Amino acid sequence: MPSPAKIAPSETLKTFKYTFPPFPEVPEGVTIVPFEDFQECGIQVDLTGSADDGEVEKDGLGIPTIQLRVKHDTDISKTNPERVRKKEVRGGGFRKEWWEDWAEGEDLRNHGPYDVNVARIDRFHQAATDFQKYRKFPPMSTNVQWLWDQLRIFSGLLASTPVWHKVSDKTAEDADDFDDDFEDDDSGSKSVYQGGPGERRYPPRPRPRAPYDRYGKAATVVEDDEDIRKLLDDARAVKEDKLVVFLDNPARSIQVFLSSYMTYQGIIYADKNLTSAPHLLRFFVNYLLRNKVLPDKTCTRSLQQSLEVIDKAAVELPLTSKLAKVLPDVFGEACQGCWGGRGENPLDSGARAAVDADAAFESILKEENVEVIKLGADEGPMPETADAPDNVPETVTAAPETDAAAAASWENNGSAAETDWALPHPSSRPSLLSLLGPTALPLTHAPGIVESSVRRIKSVVMPLEANPNPNASATEDAEAVERVLEGRFARVVMAPWVDWDPESPARILRSSVGAVATPVIAPAVPDVPSSDSAPADADPPLGPGGLKPHALETDDITVLLDPEVARTLCVGIGLSGTWVQLARQVDLPAAAAPAEEDVNEENEAKLEKNPKPKKKKTLTKAQKERRGLRYWYLDEHMMVLPSYWLV
């Protein structure tokens, strides 16, 4: 290697701007420490371990250090190295939450702008690859990488390989020819049994994998390679359709992903997914905007709108898990313990069906002159008689209880080992007495309208001041009892959410009692005249207590909830479950009106005393609202829906 050319002394002044000596003069007030007297100070180290990782590090003289603009994976705190080292071992190298670690230097992750002359699908693919490649994903235990794969499957960036089995005589290795043709899927293999030539192969059990649309389904039977190619082509077509749908309206697609898709795919059942998903979506959307991956104005506006949905999801998704763990609240459980569950329990419906079938069977036997004798549980079969008279009807012995009826009686007759897993222990269930003390609520009120529906939270009113009358709860005045409830529980106004899912409409259950404004779904309750025969344009009749009939799809309801639960509610969130009206006794059909003759005699007696009846007192608006006010409670809770829910 040739030696570098030497610079002539005459050229030194031309080459270098500064030459020493002569040295410049020392500024006034500055002392230069000779090298032999210099003592290194280093970084202040906290030996107690109490220093906060977020503090600005200082050197030995107390002067703050300067942070580098570009972050490196090896950058660790020198102030408290032992504490950081422990965190690294525990957290996979992340000193903070993973989204806080990503946020540092996120604005430097620029790999665009991307070439607008390239097709938008190709740009989108490249952007997703760069987004994953140039950042450190947290450990697998955080599910962030798994969530990223779910987003890619949903948006069409990643495909799901079909599962099949071949019934021809060729070996299963023939399927390997298609691996290179479908290598954009890492969600699982085709999985066929590799038997010998001429041996019939059976598919293994499909393993659960996300998305779960194929879970439990049998593998597709194919005859030859052409069938396999068709399966792969169909999968590619689905993948391309997902891409087009996502890119046409990113805001709507992200809204679906963060609501119904996460729910129906089971992603919401891990709390860490509820927290991480909005953060992950926010980073990806901002990356697309910052690098101008989709510069079209319509698409850019849609991506910006999706950030509003992501902000809502960051608040409401974790809240859905919290609410699912505390609903029904103590008041709903206490009412259920007092009056029993009003929902349609599958065991109960099965028992009713069994009882109806037994009754029909017995009716047929009686028509055939067959006597049915029911035995007790501890009685044996009827003894055989040698000489039976000819005119005695044939005897059939019925089982004391069907399996469905026995299942329905678990709650009352089952042993502790049979029932503890399904039903809360009676001692752990709150009661009205423990919540309200001696109360006349079971005497003044009873379950009325029962509906199964999804409703939005419209407003939340916390409990009023304590009732001034301490004995009000013990009176049999329905309004006085309701005022006690207002002072103990929060009042949550719930509005109908009709279009949350067209395939799951709201409905009135069979246990409902009371006037309903919709004849088509009115419950078939004994002793209540059906309104099906009324004209379509006629107003529904008022209930026994003069209460306006309940309109399922238009009327709001006011639900009583425990204040601690009500404080966690968010306006706009939807709750799915069984809602039960606390009807006053006068509202119920059992509270029959007096006979018409008695009413006439009573009116005649009043007219004799007061020939001129007094003018009817006009009620104020507040009194009218109070007269039609009926509170509700949550009997069964099914699901919590974020306010931006979309199917």
TrEMBL record:
Pfam families linked to this entry: Arb1
Organism domain of life: Eukaryota
Compositionally biased intervals (Low complexity): 524-540
Acidic residues bias locations: 175-186
Residue ranges, annotated region (Disordered): 175-213, 524-549, 592-622
GO cellular component terms given for this protein: ARC complex
Biological-process GO terms, alphabetical: regulatory ncRNA-mediated gene silencing
Name of the protein: Uncharacterized protein
Species whose genome carries this gene: Mycena sanguinolenta
